[in-house]
Amino acid sequence: MAGCRRSTNSQSPDSAHVPHDNLLENLQRLSCDFFWEQASPITGLVKDRASAHGTDSRTTASIAATGFGLTSLCISDSRGYLPTTLIKQRVVSTLRFLLRRAPTVNGFFYHFMNMNTGARTAGSEVSSIDTAILLCGILTCSAYFQDPEITQLALQIYDRVNWQWMLNAGPIVSHGWTPEHGFILTRWDSYSEAMVLYLLAIGSRTYPIPPRSWSVWARPTLNYQGMTYITSDAPLFIHQFSHAWVDFREKRDQFANYFDNSVTATRAHKLFCLSLVDRFPDYRENLWGISSSDNRFDYVAWGGPPATGPIDGTIVPSAAGGSIPFLPEDTLAVLENICNHFPAACTRYGYVNAFNPLTGWYDPDAIGVAVGIVTLMAENYRTQLVWNAFMRNVAIRNAMALVGFHSDERSM
To answer: pTM score, two decimals?
Structure first.
């Protein structure tokens, strides 16, 4: 992997046949380094972002990044990146902190916290989706390690989340709550990354929300170049995040096969990027992908179709990297091309968050959730480890049954 250290870890038997496996092995090793090195060894909280080159003094942690980080510890253990004893110690210390010391409101966590103390950061909200992503990591660790203390801690953290409270007297979950202003008015009322949130809430054994909440949120469709699929006016990651943990393959509810839907969304996104080549000649068959990321000035939500945000020719590696299982050949060609021809985009922790070949700008940062989605989806493509572990959770299987998922013979 150009610009990156090579892994000395041997190929796993399950992944030896996978195309581009050396690329993915090197990438995952570096990405897992991010979640080990940029987390507090005391609290286990993972930084929201850090320098892509390693040295970083920032202390703001993200609970979503921590959810990805906990899942990456399972990958690190499976691939032998670190001793199992050290990894399990990190998992246990993280879960103990989250259960006993981290501030919560009705079981929900603040989106951003000080990584060393857990203190709420910068007026952060109590976040429903970010708590859900954190829980995904926690429950993955429980299923993967099969350790009595990890399982007990994980269930205690999950069971105390009062999903009914976050409904705020409606059928649709609120985005969150702050002490200053109460509930955030926006709700998860349309297709988004919140599918896993609803499954966790419906499957709860302590504070479940009604299964009908699954069918109430809107599923708008878009037709793009002859392809019709469910989507929202939002970046590509909405088609990725829930799929990092929930195995939607060969399953459907009354509305869709959501895995196939994400395949179509990824294919449409590639064609959308290629349609912009007259304006941005860097976009081509093996260099495309825009999702929420940094640009030169700020963090922006951009992508398409339809065109969203101030698109300027920036490449966001996690757009392709987070869609590896959906469109392997196309997405891996992008990742390989970046490594071979844009070495400045490949750093200590894998890919930078974003870069612009037209201007020569390279993001100095790696962002936890972007690093995480690439790492987890690469593992699902290679061995299905994350899917297999997370789907062992009874709560998720029960929730999927309650909302009507069944085998989709058409996708087999």
So the answer is: 0.95
